[in-house]
Amino acid sequence: MYANVYETKTNLSKFLELLDSNQEKEIIICNRNKPVARLVPIALKQKETRPFGVYKDRFTANPEEDFFGLDEEIASELLGE
């Protein structure tokens, strides 16, 4: 849909309703019949919950093995020995 600046100012509420109800995908705003801007709805992404354990097979690191590369004193404190 195309609309000039005056028409956009006059019908902004109507245009927002058209975008919100998905009756229009975008509204091109023209200044002296030259397109200058695009009015589009904001696509709000629904927050999806991740299933528990989705990354369980992606990491193969063993936390105990990571401590052996540390200083013995620090490793013993972290391991509680």
Structure description:
35% of the residues lie in helices and 17% in strands. By secondary structure, it is an alpha+beta fold. It has a 3-stranded mixed beta sheet. A hairpin with a 2-residue loop joins strand 2 and strand 3 (34-39). The termini are far apart.
The fraction of residues in strands falls at 15-25%
What's the alpha carbon Rg, rounded to whole Å? 29 Å
Strand tally is: 3
Spatial order of the strands in the main sheet? Answer: 1-2-3
- Please mark out the parts with pLDDT under 50 across 5 or more consecutive residues, or reply none: none
Short description:
The protein has 81 residues and is of the alpha+beta class. It has four helices and three strands; from the N terminus they run E-H-H-E-E-H-H.
Question: How are the SSEs placed, and which strands pair?
Answer:
Elements: E1 2-4, H1 5-10, H2 12-20, E2 27-31, E3 34-39, H3 63-67, H4 72-79
Parallel strand pairs: 1-2
Antiparallel strand pairs: 2-3
Which terms summarize this structure?
rod-shaped, 3 strands, three-stranded mixed sheet, 81 residues, alpha+beta
